[in-house]
Amino acid sequence: MNNSAYEAALRSLVRRPHAEGELKQKLRRKNFTQMEIELAIEKLRGEGQINDAQLACELVQWHLDYRPLGRMGLKRRLSLRCFKESHIEAALEQVLTPEAEQKALRSLFEARLRRTDLQQLSEQKRRERLARFALSRGFSTGLVLDQLDQALAQAPNLT
């Protein structure tokens, strides 16, 4: 086996974790053959260097903790990172409980409501902006509508 595809993949993994599909794309762009790519991926998988199921769960949890996204947003983000649909669904099933998604949306609303530009808007405009922002982050309409009134009622110092 030509170790250069393996070494290139390792260099990418040192910078940050990658899904198998993502690594394959990177290696294709570097003009490695399909056989070299498959051998490198198989070796990395055997060494435990890549594990898409685990990485998908970790990314879902990271987003819930630090950069909240809803179910649809998480699916979109993981798809862009070239995860297989089965890994995406399994990660969402394991990590994204309804309570976790609600908590993520509440934290998103709380952070947005601290912004002074939102505090200066009318109640209706504030509602519209918060709803649009949450929807753009992949939260469902039903969840946004359920949590929006609660968030606005609990927000301090709104005029």
Number of DSSP helical runs: 10
Could you spell the SSE succession in H and E letters? Answer: HHHHHHHHHH
- β-strand percent reads under 5%
Q: Biggest β-sheet, characterized?
A: none
Structural class: mainly alpha
Regions with pLDDT < 50 over 5+ consecutive residues?
none
Question: Care to describe what's here?
Answer:
- The protein has 159 residues and is an all-alpha fold.
- It folds into three domains: 3-47, Arc Repressor Mutant, subunit A, CATH 1.10.10; 52-95; 98-154.
- The chain has helices spanning 3-15, 20-29, 34-47, 52-66, 71-80, 85-95, 98-113, 116-119, 123-136, 141-154.
- Helix 2 (20-29) packs antiparallel against helix 3 (34-47), helix 5 (71-80) runs antiparallel to helix 6 (85-95) and helix 9 (123-136) crosses helix 10.
- The longest helix is centred in the middle third of the chain and has 16 residues, at 98-113.
- The chain starts with a helix and ends in a 5-residue tail after the last helix.
